[in-house]
Structure formats: structure tokens, C-alpha cells
Amino acid sequence: xxxxxxxxxxxxxxxxxxxxxxxxxxxxxxxxxxxxxxxxxxxxxxxxxxxxxxxxxxxxxxxxxxxxxxxxxxxxxxxxxxxxxxxxxxxxxxxxxxxxxxxxxxxxxxxxxxxxxxxxxxxxxxxxxxxxxxxxxxxxxxxxxxxxxxxxxxxxxxxxxxxxxxxxxxxxxxxxxxxxxxxxxxxxxxxxxxxxxxxxxxxxxxxxxxxxxxxxxxxxxxxxxxxxxxxxxxxxxxxxxxxxxxxxxxxxxxxxxxxxxxxxxxxxxxxxxxxxxxxxxxxxxxxxxxxxxxxxxxxxxxxxxxxxxxxxxxxxxxxxxxxxxxxxxxxxxxxxxxxxxxxxxxxxxxxxxxxxxxxxxxxxxxxxxxxxxxxxxxxxxxxxxxxxxxxxxxxxxxxx
Length: 400
Ligand SMILES: Cc1cc2nc3c(=O)[nH]c(=O)nc-3n(C[C@H](O)[C@H](O)[C@H](O)COP(=O)(O)OP(=O)(O)OC[C@H]3O[C@@H](n4cnc5c(N)ncnc54)[C@H](O)[C@@H]3O)c2cc1C
Prior knowledge:
alpha/beta
């Protein structure tokens, strides 16, 4: 605990006891006493009328917040290929590092993955820390968390970014707990407060009704997970030069709780909405699951993928893989066609960056029309077959 009580100033008024959300303070013998359940949130510090509570910086060992420098990306790879979000984050890390006058660095874990380091350099990395070992071939929480936590503690980056993928969402919290720092999940925007060198981590809050910007002032590194598709991947510059630094791996199979017996690939076709150039999405306005047949026909005519609103997914009309929005995929296709979707803020959060938006809705007051480039007011069951007919007449699917 870094929270300290100045016993000379404390009057035992109990304001801090009421302010503490964790029940970690009591008044004992007329003075505030801090218990182990304190998480250093600082709520009591702000409320104390005597300024008797002091919160120090909390970083690993004896290091200070100022000792931490450079912006890191956990470069996630699967089967020897970098995930798209790793490229997107590397571009963002480059931007943030330039603002801070720091280095953009990547951490690459795996087995026989050295060739990927150059891709990260081309994306903007100045340094790639490469940890290779057969034990790191497939993601295992303990192994990855152990290597990455040790590296963070020895190199002291000020920012570490993870993709909000299944792996990133599993790994980042383990690391934040191990090295005792904060983590902001599912960020949709990252910026820098230059005067304080603080990472401004923006994400939807309260059901997506507000955007909250979260900071981590007293702990290092500042860590975020970022949803795939939110940031733009940089144009790779193959002429860039960077340093690849090998990191010794000291983990032992015996120390790992999980053993990988077999890797079984999912057989079903996965929709790839994040990369789709054209998406046709259906919502509750379809009326029933059969309605997705007409959505599929339009998607096929345009050469696109099928998306959906959460209402359609919740009604079990279509699999969650197709959901677009705050709790689904974030997409930015060239063309997004929203059919029978009202355009709730949570849906817009996942598609409003699309280059061209067409909305088909029978309610002229539907919010989706406020962000649509073209709005068609009408019954989708009449409009879509007509659109398909016109597309076929001009052979548009093949030209788009
Ligand atoms: C924490 C949280 C997270 C969420 N995450 C997501 C998310 O990721 N994605 C998401 O989509 N939602 C999400 N939601 C839900 C969101 O708030 C809306 O409830 C949802 O998007 C509504 O889906 P919809 O537009 O299909 O349905 P509705 O809002 O019911 O809209 C249906 C529309 O269809 C139109 N319509 C009806 N019949 C026809 C017809 N025959 N022809 C043309 N138009 C017709 C109606 O006029 C209406 O505008 C989230 C909500 C919360 C609280």
C-alpha cells in the first residue's frame, strides 16, 4: 500500500471511511487506519478535509513513474502470422511515441517468428524484443504473462498496448495484476496529455451513452486493450531500420499449469467483417430469422458480408460473429448497408466510420438516417428485391 496517513493532521473525522469504496479504512484510537484491501484508488485523498492522506506513486520495486519510457505493443501472432490488430496498434504506438519523443517498441513472443520482426519495424517499431522458445509456440497464459511481466519490469515502458482479442483480453489483466498497474479495456481512442505524459484512454461507458477518458497517473506502465478495427494500420515502410533484441526465455514446462494436448481448428466458416469492403446488415426490422435470406441475397449481389444488429443476434436469428457495434465488431467498410436497423448509439459505435452508409428503414425518424449518406425510407422487403434487380441489370456485383 502506498496510501499514508499523516497522523499529526488526521482528526479522526471519518470522512475517509465514508469515501472509501472498498471498506479499507477504519478510525482506530481517533486516527484513520488503512487496511490491506486498500487499492490506492485515491477516493479518500480527495475527500479528506485535513489533507491528512497522501498517495505515493506505485510502480514496480524502487522505480519512479518518471523512470518509465517508450511505447510498447504486444505483437500478437497466430500460427506465425501477425494479427491485424498488431499492425494497427504499431501504427498508433508510432504516433504516440512521436508525441512523447520516445521510441515505439514491439514485443514478439513465439517460436520461429523472427521474420515477423521486420514487419513490425516496417510498421514503425524502433526496437522489437523477440522472445522465442518452443514453449511459446501456442499461447498459454502463464508462459506469456511470465515472460512479458519480467520484460516490462526490466525495460520499464511507459505505455503497453494489447489488442482486445481473446488472447489480449486474457493476457493484459494477468500482467496488470502481476506488475500492479491499471488497465483500461476495450479502448476506442488513445491520445497523449503532453504536459503530464499521460495516456488518455477513451472508451464507451454506461452502456455506450457517454465516452469516458481514463488516465493512470500514479502507476506504470499505462496499459490498454484496443478493439481490432478501431485504429488504422499504417502503410508499411520496408526501408525502415530497427533493432531486434533477443530476450532470454527462462520458463520451464514443469512450471506451466496448462499442457497443450492438441490444437483443433474451428471448422465452421468465420465471417470476416473487419476486413470486408462491403457489409449488408440486418436488424430487428427483418421481423424474423428468414429475413436474413434477403440480406444474404443483397450481400451476394454486392459481393459483401452479412452483418447484424444486436437485436437480431439476441433474438438468435444469426450468430454473434455477425454482430456489429459496441459489443460486436468494429467495422469500417467502403459500403455499409443497414436494413431494418434503427441506428442505436451502440450500433453506430461499430460502423459509423464506414466510408459510405446506406440505410433502409420504414421510419423516417430513425437515428440511422442522421449518419447515412443515402437514406431509403420504405419497407425493406420491397426495397431490397428492387435494389437486387437493378444491381443484376447493370451487373454491379462484379464491378464493385
Ligand atoms: C451495453 C450495450 C451494448 C450494446 N451493444 C450493441 C451492439 O454491439 N450492436 C448493436 O447493434 N446493438 C447493441 N446494443 C443494443 C442497442 O441499444 C439497440 O437495442 C439495438 O442496436 C437495436 O437493434 P435494431 O436496430 O435491429 O432494432 P430496433 O431498434 O428495434 O430497430 C428496428 C428498426 O427496423 C425498422 N423496421 C421495422 N420493420 C421494417 C421494415 N419492414 N422495413 C424497413 N425498416 C423496418 C424500424 O423502423 C426500426 O427503426 C447494445 C446495448 C447495450 C445496452
